[in-house]
Amino acid sequence: MKGKMLDDIKMCKRQAMFVETGSCFDATKTSNIKSRPGGHDALPVRPIDKSAFSYSKETSKRSPKQFQKKKTGAGGTLVPPKVVDSTPEFPDENIDVSQHERDKKFREIHFPAFTERPNPPNTEFRRFYERGDLPVQIDHGGVQNRITWKVAIDQIDFYHYLPIFFDGLRETEEPYAFLSEQGVYDMIQGSPHKVLPVIPQLVIPIKTALNTRNQSVIIKVLKVLQVLVKSDIKGQNLIGRALVPYYRQILPVLNIFIRKNETMGGRINYSQKKHGDLGKMIMDTLEQFEVNGGENAFINIKYLVPVYQSVVSK
Question: Coil, helix or strand for 192?
Answer without folding.
Answer: helix
